[in-house]
Design brief:
alpha+beta, Translation Initiation Factor IF3, four-stranded mixed sheet, flat
């Protein structure tokens, strides 16, 4: 397992910033069940955050090393009680078989349906836009032909500002 380059580690830290912890290590510590859950999460997401509930700094350091050793993962970052762990998902396995003809046909049908739906949505949007354009043109025709004045009209003459009467307090 080759170590991560500093550039790749920086990219992963940036990606992990928006993540929330998906696994929490509880009071019982790093049990086999917790490691299995971390493994499932790494298979699903590649990059995860793990939170250690309550433990000393030394225990957290040991836990992070143990997780990375047992799961062949890379430690990306540790801030306080939160670990960021990365394990690249293997590419398509050599033993995997290709989809059967019926599955390919279903996939093609779904793709065709999606294309038809998107074309219908585009047509609907085009009709809405055309209707709005016609309404704007009609509104322009209804407007007055006389141009507006660009100078503001003068304010009306008025007397001095009125004052509020004083109350005796």
């Amino acid at each position: 397992m080759p170590p991560l380059s500093s550039k790749r580690r920086s990219e992963l830290r940036a990606e992990a910033h928006r993540l929330t912890p998906v696994v929490i290590i509880g009071d019982k510590g790093l049990t086999d069940e917790v490691v299995a859950e971390i493994d499932r999460s790494l298979r699903a997401h590649e990059l995860i955050k793990v939170r250690a509930a309550a433990a000393s700094r030394e225990n957290r350091d040991i836990w992070l090393e143990s997780i990375c050793e047992r799961l062949q993962a890379h430690p990306v970052q540790q801030i306080g009680k939160v670990f960021v762990v990365y394990r690249e998902n293997p590419k398509e396995k050599p033993g995997a078989k290709a989809p059967e003809a019926g599955e390919r046909r279903r996939e093609a049908t779904a793709t065709t349906k999606a294309r038809i739906v998107s074309e219908a949505a585009r047509e609907k949007q085009r009709k809405r836009d055309e209707k709005k354009r016609r309404e704007r043109e009609e509104a322009d025709l209804k407007r007055s032909v006389r141009p507006r004045s660009r100078t503001p009209s003068p304010l009306p003459e008025s007397g001095p500002p009125r004052r509020r009467p004083r109350t005796s307090r």
